[in-house]
Every structure is written in structure tokens, then in C-alpha cells.
């Protein structure tokens, strides 16, 4: 079965996703930086046998998008609901333009 990795907003927690059906992985964000949380999600994605669905709300949407950029071959679909910052998806070179 293909996993869904559900990433919560900064004001909530993994319980935000308790009504989702199927194999749902909903980590708790407890790290000091977004980069550490992204690395955690990348590690979860790499551990999956099949590509996974990423679902993220607000801060979780931002983390989902950034993680997907690092391991696009491990992501089947992305659903980002109100991600906090589309601008951060650009590379430093793109931001300099």
C-alpha cells in the first residue's frame, strides 16, 4: 500500500490528520529549524518502498514542497493546503534575478 505522509501546520499536531484512511505517517514537528524538519521528511520518504503521497497544511505544506524538491523520485503526489511561502522554493540563483 502506498503511504500518505501528512504534515501538520505550526499551530496543530499530527492529530490534525486522525480522520485520514489508509497508511498515514504523521510526524510531530519538534526540531529547531525547518531544515531539520525537511531532513526528517526526506528520511521518511527515502524509507518508503513505493512513492508516497505528501499532504501538508500551512507550515506542513512548506515542508512537503521543500522535501519533494530534494527527493522528487520518492513523491507520487503533493497536496499543499495554504503553504506559507512559495517564494522559498526558488533557488538562491533564481532569487538573485
Could you estimate the helical fraction of the residues in percent?
A: 25-40%
Q: Which blocks of ≥5 consecutive residues have pLDDT under 50?
A: none
Strand order of the largest sheet: 2-1-3-4
Q: First CA to last CA: what distance?
A: 43 Å
Number of beta strands: 4
Query: How would you describe the oligomerization state of the chains in this entry?
Result: single chain
Number of helices: 3
| SSE arrangement, N to C | EEHEHEH
Mean pLDDT: 88
Principal-axis shape: globular
Structural class given helices, strands, pairing?
Answer: alpha/beta
Strand % is: 15-25%
Q: Mind summarizing the main beta sheet?
A: 4 strands, parallel
Give a written overview of the molecule:
This protein has helices at 34-47, 59-70, 92-96, and strands at residues 4-7, 24-25, 52-57, 75-81. It is α/β, with parallel strands linked by helices and 97 residues long. The protein has a 4-stranded parallel sheet, covered by helices on one side. Strand 3 (52-57), helix 2 (59-70) and strand 4 (75-81) form a beta-alpha-beta unit. Helix 1 packs across helix 2 (59-70). The longest helix has 14 residues, at 34-47.
Amino acid at each position: 500500500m502506498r503511504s500518505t505522509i501528512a504534515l501538520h501546520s505550526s499551530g496543530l499536531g499530527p492529530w490534525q490528520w486522525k480522520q485520514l484512511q489508509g497508511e498515514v505517517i504523521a510526524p510531530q514537528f519538534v526540531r529547531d529549524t525547518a531544515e531539520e524538519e525537511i531532513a526528517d521528511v526526506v528520511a521518511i520518504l527515502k524509507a518508503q518502498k513505493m512513492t508516497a503521497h505528501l499532504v501538508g497544511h500551512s507550515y506542513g505544506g512548506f515542508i512537503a514542497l521543500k522535501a519533494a524538491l530534494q527527493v522528487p523520485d520518492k513523491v507520487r503526489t503533493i497536496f499543499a493546503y495554504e503553504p506559507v511561502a512559495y517564494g522559498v522554493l526558488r533557488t538562491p540563483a533564481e532569487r538573485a534575478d
